[in-house]
């Protein structure tokens, strides 16, 4: 009694489904003339943009070259000025160095140290006239 018994369903056959025909979407093929026209328009626009860019570069090139020349001139002047400034700094620090104060005073003044004796060398052959 506990055996599985086949089930008898009282299913009512359903109405057959109505098939809706699918609409096939065909890509709307543009004519070759329209594609060629669009491509030509794109090329013309790109050519005009390229021509404008090249014209702008041609006008900027002389300005760029003149600026490069000015920059080189300024760099040379900076190098000369740096050399001069370094020399002046060295001289400045030397002027205030207490160990070199006497030497700097002798260089910059006509006065001489009273203890300083000037030595003049003479040629012994020309001295007596003998």
Q: Strand-residue fraction?
A: under 5%
* Overall morphology: elongated
Write down the secondary-structure element order: HHH
Report low-confidence residues grouped into runs of 5 or more: none
State the helix count: 3
Characterize the largest beta sheet: strand count, sense, and whether it forms a barrel: none
The helix content, as a percent range, equals 55-70%
Which class best fits the helix and strand makeup? mainly alpha
Average pLDDT confidence is 82
Radius of gyration: 52 Å
The number of distinct β-strands equals 0
Query: Alpha-carbon distance between the termini?
Result: 170 Å
Describe it.
With 130 residues, the protein is mostly helical. Helix content is 58%, strand content 0%. It has helices at residues 32-95, 101-108, 124-127. It is elongated, with a radius of gyration of 52 Å. The model has no long low-confidence stretch (mean pLDDT 82).
Please outline the helices and strands.
Elements: H1 32-95, H2 101-108, H3 124-127
In short:
This protein is mostly helical and 130 residues long. Helix content is 58%, strand content 0%. It has helices spanning 32-95, 101-108, 124-127.
Give short descriptive properties of this protein:
58% helix, mainly alpha, 130 residues
